[in-house]
Model the fold of this input.
Amino acid sequence: MTFTDTLWTDTSDLQNVIATMPFNTELADGTLPPETFRRYIIQDAHYLEGFARALALSAARAPDADAVAQLAGSAKGAIVVERLLHADYMDRFDVSAEDFAATPPSRACDHYVSFLIRSAAVEPFPVAVVSLLPCFWIYHKIGVMIHARAKPDNPFSAWIDTYASPDFEDAVTAMLDLTNRLAAQADEETRKAMTAAFTRASWHEWMFWESAYRGEAWDTPA
Done:
């Protein structure tokens, strides 16, 4: 097994929870309430800006030119997705620029972005990279799973198609390859830190969707 295979196996219970949570099952069925998806896309736009910043910070710390180019390219890609996909969906779900500006990041979004920025800025480079991996890998797995069962008239088909696409799969494969290469070069203490960071980032992925589904605000009890 590769290092990333082990990461997935070690977090399989959490990954199964994510795959079967109401947000994703209703997204696949096309029955997710429009207001719930509206909340989600606003938060996802906030998140992707922070995610791009974490990728760019990590790129600046990369030890070789290939990793710099890969992570910097992914940072640009995150911004492109935010501007194109979210602009389309914000128009469809009647989210104006004023609505977006008036809606701050949720507690889950803020905590996830803070975790990624902190990891990118102060953790060892391999830990920074593996912290970013779940956003690629989990979204692709969920996208492929939903794509296989979604009907052609699913109102969320553009979102589904984006994360199930070959282009996104290529980006995921590149992140998996980079993670495995870094793990092979790392000592045992660093690999343990990488495992912990992957688990924490996967937990943040779950909480991000869950908070959007529940309509969590800063004053919502935990």
